[in-house]
Automatic annotation (TrEMBL):
Coiled coil: none annotated. SUPFAM superfamilies: (Trans)glycosidases (SSF51445), Actin-crosslinking proteins (SSF50405). This is Actin cross-linking, Fascin, Glycoside hydrolase. Residues 221-489 form the Glycoside hydrolase family domain. Belongs to the glycosyl hydrolase 5 (cellulase A) family. Keywords: Glycosidase, Hydrolase. Gene3D superfamilies: 2.80.10.50, Glycosidases (3.20.20.80). One of its GO terms (biological process) is establishment or maintenance of cell polarity. It comes from Artemisia annua.
Length: 507
């Protein structure tokens, strides 16, 4: 009698299984080169501060999506305010402009907007069509479209035309109505004149594409993708002593060629090219999901529309993100340069809860493993969270990496430090943080973003060189490696290309 598994067949199964364990094991021991990488920031995900010229041709480019306005009545000197933060009338009785006095733009074109108040309601008119209220929770259906008309291009004086065709006026502190002809002088006797100040702006992918409008956005973004990073840059990376790159991408790239508005198609083609160029030069690619649907941190670099953080607050945002990870992983799994996937960049506490993140990380890990058994899975720590809180989530996962970002900026503790104090901070604080996180059988550690820039004014080249060198040494202790932010940037110290070419960074 012949058993269903003949001897030779059984051996084949055993052999394949053994090879699987060996190949799987290869990524799991520590016998691989550490990553010394550079981020390709500002390429497939727009960050205006890295290349401001992208916004140059947008009409009224101070009135982009998310721009936060405060409007002070010229007659009374009081600010417009959404009573109770929204869900009620608009009043004009506040001496100081704070959160309830802040109005955020949802841009339709250079002069027409939906306007959102503190608690996310939209501005509109009451049932009589006269009084200003903020009831609507829906931008498209029930909220009004308002026009902002400046006195002149560079003036802060504005009039606001309401959906009924008349102009908003602050008649008294409690009565704000849309019933002015708006044809008086631009002085302080006309209650339809407001002094507008802009307290916050965003320059991300949403703002640039929506600001340019579909046709021009398509042309300008394609031109940017084509020229900002080119194949020659990969030669530079390969010959500079780097061995890889981290590529920030947005969720909409997975919906190419027809991403939802205002995003424009075509970015996937350049991501494909990057993988091809990397493969030719044996460079490793870390794919980094920098923008998740709804925004995971409310910053422009996650493509927020108006500063809201909505990722993880509905199941749908998590499920959609998992589909994005599956799309990218299955697309590049066979490319030998495909080294790691960062599941989500810089989720921010408390908006992104640890439980939503844990759920997503566990499901995301499984999806990556399904397609790419050997790729590393990178779990970003939460901004304003404790880095160690991620460790329990990673229990039982293989080939996982904890990603931390170390900037000696964006916190008051750095504002008074001199160069030596910054360097000491790296040597002492950062190195002990890293050591505490790096354990022999826990997840690997990765400093996925750092830069040789600080708050110090007038530092010498030698100071910068020592600072960069110290960071390389300390972040070199991270068990997975590090990545500089970024390859190109109009701000020289933030451009690794400039720093290497000008002798500030030696590898
Ligand atoms: C508008 O407000 C700004 C500061 O908030 C002030 O500097 C400016 O003088 C004001 N403009 C007018 C015309 O009052």
């Amino acid at each position: 009698m012949i058993s269903p598994y003949s001897n030779s067949r059984l051996w084949r199964v055993v052999l394949v299984f053994a090879m699987f364990i060996i190949s799987n094991g290869r990524t799991l021991n520590s016998n691989y080169p550490k990553i010394r990488a550079v981020n390709l920031g500002g390429w497939l995900v727009t960050e205006g501060w890295m290349k401001p010229s992208l916004f140059d041709t947008i009409p009224n480019n101070d009135l982009l999506d998310g721009a936060a306005l405060q409007l002070k009545s010229m007659t009374s000197g009081k600010y417009l305010s959404a009573e109770h933060g929204g869900g009620s009338i608009i009043v004009a009785n506040r001496t100081f402009g704070k959160s309830w006095e802040t109005f955020k733009l949802w841009r339709i074109n250079g002069t027409s907007f939906h306007i959102r108040v503190f608690n996310k309601r939209f501005l509109g008119l009451d049932s009589n069509g006269v009084r200003l209220v903020a009831y609507s929770t829906d931008s498209e259906l029930t909220s009004g479209i308002f026009e902002i008309i400046k006195k002149s291009t560079n003036s802060s004086l504005v009039r606001i035309k309401a959906p009924n065709g008349l102009f908003v006026q602050a008649k008294s502190e409690e009565l704000v109505t849309a019933d002015s002809k708006g044809d008086g002088q631009w002085g302080d006797t006309d209650p339809s004149v407001f002094n507008m100040s802009i307290t916050e702006v965003f320059h991300g992918e949403y703002q640039v594409t929506n600001g340019l409008g579909a046709l021009r956005a398509s042309k300008i973004m394609k031109n940017h993708w084509k020229k900002f990073i080119v194949e020659k840059d990969f030669d530079f990376i390969a010959t500079s002593g780097l061995n890889g790159m981290r590529i920030p991408v947005g969720w909409w790239t997975a919906r190419d060629p027809t991403p939802p508005k205002p995003y424009v198609g075509g970015s996937l083609h350049y991501l494909d090219k990057a993988f091809m160029w990397a493969k030719k030069r044996n460079l490793k690619v870390i794919l980094d999901l920098h923008c998740a649907p709804g925004s995971q941190n409310g910053y422009e670099h996650s493509s927020t529309r108006d500063g809201s953080l909505e990722w993880g607050q509905t199941e749908e945002t998590i499920q959609e993100t998992l589909r994005v990870i599956e799309f990218f992983t299955s697309r590049y799994a066979k490319n030998p340069s495909f080294y790691a996937v960062g599941l989500i960049n810089e989720p921010r506490a408390p908006g992104v809860t640890l439980s939503a993140l844990a759920k997503y990380y566990k499901a995301g890990y499984k999806i990556v493993r399904k397609h790419a058994p050997n790729a590393f899975v990178i779990l970003s720590t939460r901004l304003d969270g404790d880095p160690k809180e991620i460790f329990p989530i990673a229990t039982g996962m293989k080939g996982v990496v904890i990603d931390v970002h170390y900037y000696n900026q964006f916190s008051p503790i750095f504002s008074s430090m001199n160069s030596q104090q910054n360097i000491d901070f790296i040597k002492t604080n950062r190195s002990s943080e890293l050591q505490a996180m790096t354990t022999s059988n826990g997840p690997l550690t990765f400093v996925g973003e750092w830069v040789a820039e600080w708050e110090v004014k007038g530092a010498s080249k030698e100071d910068y060189m020592r600072y960069a060198k110290t960071q390389q040494e300390v972040f070199g202790l991270a068990s997975f490696g590090w990545a500089y932010w970024s390859l190109k940037n109009v701000n020289n110290h933030w451009s690794m290309e400039w720093m290497i070419k000008n002798g500030y960074i030696k590898l």
